[in-house]
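Supplementary Methods, section 5.1.

A reviewer requested that the exact input to the structure prediction be made available. We therefore reproduce it here, unchanged from the version used in the analyses.
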Amino acid sequence: MATGDVTISIAVEGGATKSVVLDSATRALARAYVEAMDENIDDDAKWQVFEVNKMGNGILNRANKHGIASLSYTPKEFTAAT
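The structure derived from this sequence is encoded token-by-token as follows.
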């Protein structure tokens, strides 16, 4: 791993940690893209926070979508007053 490379890891408690490494050029391009959308993200630390929160939010959204889709719900009906 060279200076500026990024390691992204996911660890499951009691399991193995899985990681990917992105080179520094990829990090620079990704950070520049985010900086163009949000001027407050102007250093690596802020970019890291943005990316890890985005990843966590994506995982949470997928879990919520699956939970909603797997629920069994029968819509209620009523007899309209006449």
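The CA atoms of residues 1 and 21 lie 8 Å apart. These observations are discussed further in the main text.
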